[in-house]
């Protein structure tokens, strides 16, 4: 039976909550441009597929996803939807608060939207833990795969690069059109990077300016990185590694 909350009747949900030992997964993504070769919903699909595969092994409940994120730097290309962080904080807080009323008190927020979503998710998590007495963990694929990306030969974290593309090729091959991808190699920036494996600063990232985003849009259709190096085989290793870590997080919460 599916682990998705919205596919259950209230009686089925009551039983599933008990079976989950109080653990709920909330996938959080975005709707934003992902170059010429991938769909606008890539970040959300990343969070969804991780939630589904980890829930199969743990009985954790999967909450309907937050499809939208904070994406002001991608508004340069059509289809992107950006939501103000303060709205997202309130929205996610209300989701957690509602679920707490029904016996779910341990939450894992899967972030499919890289570092840009993390700030407002941290604010929500802190408020929920302080005011609701729940436990909230954030699971971010980029941070949870730091020990394997170099082994797989992936380049630095960018946007629609070989990491995201390989993952999507493995899990949603029909949505990826690699023949349309255009490389835009990432140039190192001293002391600043969005890549968690970078030895110096990563957390002081600020979303790109419109002018900078426009430059990438013209050069590569919005891609930063080298998607031409992607492969479904690498995507499988990457995915399995993340699922292994996510299952550990869930089981630790289940006790």
What would your notes on this structure say?
- By secondary structure, the chain is of the alpha/beta class.
- It contains seven helices and four strands, in the order αβαβαβαβααα.
- The chain has a four-stranded parallel beta sheet, with helices on both faces.
- β1, α2 and β2 form a beta-alpha-beta unit.
- The longest helix has 23 residues.
Strand portion: 5-15%
Strand order of the largest sheet: 2-1-3-4
The biggest sheet, with number of strands, parallel, antiparallel or mixed sense and barrel status, is:
4 strands, parallel
The helix/strand order is HEHEHEHEHHH
Helix content: 40-55%
User: Runs with pLDDT <50, length 5+?
Assistant: none
E-strand count: 4
Q: Which key phrases capture this entry?
A:
4 strands, alpha/beta, 255 residues, 7 helices, 42% helix
Quickly describe the structure.
This protein is of the alpha/beta class. The protein has helices spanning 10-19, 42-58, 85-100, 114-132, 162-171, 210-220, 232-254; strands spanning 23-28, 61-62, 106-111, 135-139. Helix 2 (42-58) links the parallel strand 1 (23-28) and strand 2 (61-62).
Secondary-structure map:
Blueprint: H1 10-19, E1 23-28, H2 42-58, E2 61-62, H3 85-100, E3 106-111, H4 114-132, E4 135-139, H5 162-171, H6 210-220, H7 232-254
Parallel strand pairs: 1-2, 1-3, 3-4
Helix pairs in contact: 2-5, 2-7, 3-4, 5-7
